[in-house]
Amino acid sequence: MDMNARSGPDFDLVRRLLLPPGWIGARPYRLPPPDEMEIEEIDDLVAKLEAENKLMKAVLRSEREAAAELRAQVAALTTQQAQEETMQHDLRTDRDRWASLVERLLFAPR
């Protein structure tokens, strides 16, 4: 899948948050020295970073929930497969028992 085919502010933000710096280019902003920033700029930057932090936590929570759901599905399928194997074994045993009985009845000496 072509990573450049996906675009949009949400995808770019998530990609930027998930990948280390330098993997997809430079970060869109760099922090200037504190004495060069005004209080409003610092407040805006802090608010933006807090929003990105909340988004990152939501992405990670969603990923954990999806992984837990997949683990539960795998466990359910494994349990179902084990039950089906047990049932198949029981059916084979019953079939063999009936085949043995029919064989004894048909070919028993009279």
Protein model, in words:
- With 110 residues, the chain is mostly helical.
- The protein has a domain at 31-79.
- The protein has 2 helices and no strands.
- The chain starts with 8 loop residues before the first helix and ends with a helix.
- The mean pLDDT is 79.
Whole-number radius of gyration? 32 Å
**What is the SS-derived class?**
mainly alpha
Helix content: over 70%
For the record, give the distance between the C-alpha atoms at the N and C termini, rounded to a whole number. Answer: 75 Å
Shape designation: rod-shaped
Mean pLDDT: 79
> Uncertain runs with pLDDT below 50, 5 residues or more?
none
Percentage of residues in strands: under 5%
Order of helices and strands: HH
Number of extended strands: 0
Number of helices: 2
Tell me about the largest β-sheet. none
